[in-house]
Amino acid sequence: MSTSTRQLDTSELEQRVKHMYQEVALEPEREFHFETGRALAERLGYPSQDLDRIPAGAIESFAGVGCFLDLAAIAPGETVLDLGSGSGRDSFLAALAVGPDGKVVGVDMTDEQLAKATRLAGDAGLGNVEFRSGYLEGPPVEDGSVDCVISNGVVNLSPDKPAVFAAVARALRPGGRLALSDIVSAEQLPEGVSCDASLWAACIGGAMQRDRYREAIEAAGFEIASMRENPEYHFVSDRADNATQKYGVKSISLLARRG
Ligand SMILES: C[S@@+](CC[C@H](N)C(=O)[O-])C[C@H]1O[C@@H](n2cnc3c(N)ncnc32)[C@H](O)[C@@H]1O
User: pLDDT per residue over 34-82, tens digit each?
Assistant: First the structure.
């Protein structure tokens, strides 16, 4: 029987994640373990005519892993919560979809991402989107107030995914939906990878085994309506690529409905 000896240091992880995404906000042209920016967004399937309608600064700092907006099917007048909103790219696209009678709230824990998204929204005169400081595991929104929760490349970064899905269920009205893109793995990751805060912050170390990921969503009271792989997404550094090949780390998009 193997005995677990290593543990992820969650406060070190939070600092590393904040540091990494502070750089994504402030210096998006730098090289990371993952791709960022407009070319990535277009490859993942975001229509360029939609990208043309939102602030360019949000697209340059885009660090998502898939496109789920077709699954989300956001309608005019809806309330949308974007968990881990980063510099606001998906929040801004959602703001176009909900229109003047709807509302979008983006939540993130990294101050520089929040400041950038808030500045871009102000500069663009977008009054139906706001960004709040908070955590995925307890977002600052009223229970049952949201029609659709969206999230891109973020849940893998949480050390407590069941708490994230429970928080999503609380935020949604009955019948509300969760549409996301995220990173999962074919195999359970070994401790050498999952306890490495640097690989975790790069969206690899925190990848949950995909069947466990589905089960965690279902355990929070959701029915999964659709789950697909995003073969267009890949990691860029050798270190990241080795781990992804070996353990089948992949990007997926899914739609789930709250019962
Ligand atoms: C990979 S980036 C994705 C950002 C954005 N969704 C996008 O597509 O560009 C992850 C974001 O999630 C935020 N984040 C990670 N863990 C978080 C947590 N537990 N609570 C709140 N925000 C978190 C980070 O600050 C970062 O902005």
Answer: 889 999 999 999 999 999 999 999 999 999 999 999 999 999 999 999 9
Q: How far apart are CA 24 and CA 37, in angstroms?
A: 10
Would you say the C-alpha torsion 135, 140, 143, 149 has a positive or negative sign? negative
CA atoms within 13 A on the CB side of 79: 12
At 134, which amino acid appears? G
Indicate whether residue 72 lines ligand 1 (CB < 6 A).
no
Task: Check if 109 has its Cβ closer than 6 Å to any atom of ligand 1.
Answer: yes
Which protein residue has the closest C-alpha to ligand 1 atom 20? 135
- Other CB atoms within 10 A of residue 11 CB: 8
Residue 86 beta carbon below 6 angstroms from any ligand 1 atom:
yes
Exposed (0-12), middle (13-18) or buried (19+): which is 150, by Cβ within 10 Å? Answer: buried
Cα–ligand 1 centroid distance for 91 (angstroms):
12
The model's pTM: 0.95
Q: How far is the CA of 34 from the centre of ligand 1 (A)?
A: 14
Q: Is 150 in the pocket of ligand 1 (CB under 6 A)?
A: no
